[in-house]
Request: fold
Amino acid sequence: MSTTASEARPWQRWYWTARWRAVRAAQLKAEPWCKFCLQAGEHMSATVCDHVERHNGDPVRFWSGPFQSLCKTHHDSSKQQAERRGYSGAVDEFGWPIDERHPANSGRIPALRGGIVELSDAGAEHRGALYAQSRN
Reply:
């Protein structure tokens, strides 16, 4: 006998309640633009009230948030990829990952031609240059 998604994750039905619709409406009214689009310098209307942190069925975390407003495209792609990987792939103007959980921000990165580039003493302003050096 197969188990449906709603049976496996009973909290899924919470998204169809009047209470969730009210939470969603309040979030989208407070923050009408997609957070990820704004970070990229674009203005896209948000349509999804997203849990910043996974709630994993915890009712307190589900109903209390924190929440962020996202467009459907970012929610269904960037956000869920980051949840699966455990870090975001978003980068700064140098192409360096901005998420502190990204492996490149561990203090050591593998150089493309072998060896290790140490980043422990490098500030964010120097990482772009170090990354470029590792590629030469």
In short: The first strand starts at residue 48 and ends at 51. Strands lie at 48-51, 67-70, 108-110, 116-118.
